[in-house]
Write a structure and sequence with these properties.
homodimer, 264 residues, alpha+beta, PSTPO5379-like, PSTPO5379-like fold, 2 domains, 4-stranded antiparallel sheet, 7 helices, 20% helix, EC 4.2.1.- (chains A, B)
Chain lengths: 264, 264
């Protein structure tokens, strides 16, 4: 919780200097965090349409101009190639490797997409007394592939990925209301309880991130996750794609409350 | 108010048969209405990005597949070339004419965009006791060009268009809350009172639609309007574009409450 009250730019500077290299949950309370997808322009229309058709898993926060690695809206001046703790590169749908920065891979035909992240609403969950287990246990959030199909768009198709937080039964309604009020960072849960109903066979083995403890009296609650595009990239196999590594997010300069009510 | 409780499909059938040719305000209470923009594919990425960057004036409800005039989500099976009361065709940014159907203009490279319309929230305004003057006066809503710039995207740039409804001073907060809860059909007002502040010099001369009476004790309240893209088309001059005629909307099969909470 060292960085709970830190300012986004300070954290991003430490990330660019590779002083911070891990997951960003619990950092910069009140500020929106974002998933990253970078694709060549030839795929950009199909992917933009994919986000429009799948707003719960892919709430779009900013789209960069082709060839420009600097953000304008969510973190003005941020170099998207350096200010995320860990990146992934996929070629033809296969993970090629993880990188602490990707400036040497930047190209003139690349377009960046920022998608809201559910880490954003965790400070508000904590404020209202709802536990966030992966912050307590200082690990990454557990994420799972599901059997929930996304709406296809052009070449992009695949199933939704979800993040899971164990919630005490008596706080489930509150968790739905708190997060449902923040649709641009995924909003309300997509599923509560019964993981097998959405195609998750073993909660102890997340597809991304780390397992967390589910205590007696708690139910697993699942939110749409911005890692969904990575699952879709693996299935749809574009020739080149850069993403963040799951849980290693961009911390933006925009507060959640601005996303909720709009800027002036 | 004859069609206030009508079902969307019945109204769309009457529209396709050209029995209904006028504005659609006050029809099919509770169902979302939509603005239409049809562009050649070569402009589709820029326009999709324009809607993403301008969600208040251009809340996107559905994007068709290239060359397919039939809708899938907002009004499954609807022929977008026939089920709107009046269309406009623009060439190089100039209005070429108005048409009651546009099937003969359809091409394999065209993409349809549906954008939420503020007519959608008028039934809820009426239910909560807020007057809707253009429904009372059986005319089109007044719409104005403003000096509020949109965020540019590719070739598309221009200012926001707003719709205006006179609201009694004591009901302004209620009008903000009722409409602010429905962001996918434009949401909260963008401006209240003082039309000159947003570049409107004469309320009696709307740029689109009809003037309505502003009574003593009422203030003009302005909402972002889905005619904004037409203003942008006039400035940005794509070689070909089809839109609805202002106020002559697509009445969808989706209820506002589904837009608010999502479908299952």
């Amino acid at each position: 919780m060292d960085y709970f009250y830190a300012k986004p730019k300070d954290i991003r500077n430490r990330i660019a200097a590779q002083e911070i290299t891990g997951p960003t949950a619990g950092m910069c309370a009140g500020y929106a965090q974002a998933n990253l997808v970078i694709l060549p322009k030839k795929y950009a229309y199909d992917f933009l349409l994919f986000t429009q058709r799948n707003p719960r898993s892919c709430p779009l926060l900013e789209v960069g101009d082709m060839g420009d690695p600097f953000l304008k809206t969510m973190a003005p001046g941020c170099d998207i190639t350096k200010e995320i703790p860990k990146y992934r590169i996929y070629k033809n749908g296969e993970l090629q490797g993880e990188y602490s920065e990707i400036s040497s891979f930047w190209r003139e035909d690349l377009v960046s997409f920022l998608i809201g992240c559910s880490f954003s609403f965790e400070a508000e969950m904590l404020e209202t007394g709802i536990p966030v287990r992966h912050i307590e246990e200082k690990c990454n959030v557990p994420m799972y592939k599901t059997n929930i199909p996304c709406q296809s768009a052009g070449v992009f198709r695949g199933n939704m990925v979800v993040s899971m937080r164990p919630i005490p039964y008596q706080q489930v309604s509150k968790a739905v209301m708190v997060t449902g009020a923040m649709p641009r960072v995924h909003g309300a849960p997509v599923h509560i309880g019964a993981p097998e109903q959405i195609g998750i066979s073993d909660l102890d083995r997340p597809d991304f991130g780390d397992m967390v403890t589910i205590r007696p009296g708690e139910v697993p609650v699942f939110w749409p996750c911005g890692v969904t595009p990575q699952n879709v990239i693996m299935e749809s196999k574009p020739d080149f794609c850069i993403t963040h590594a799951p849980g290693h997010m961009l911390i933006t300069d925009v507060r959640n409350i601005e996303l909720k009510y709009g800027s002036d």
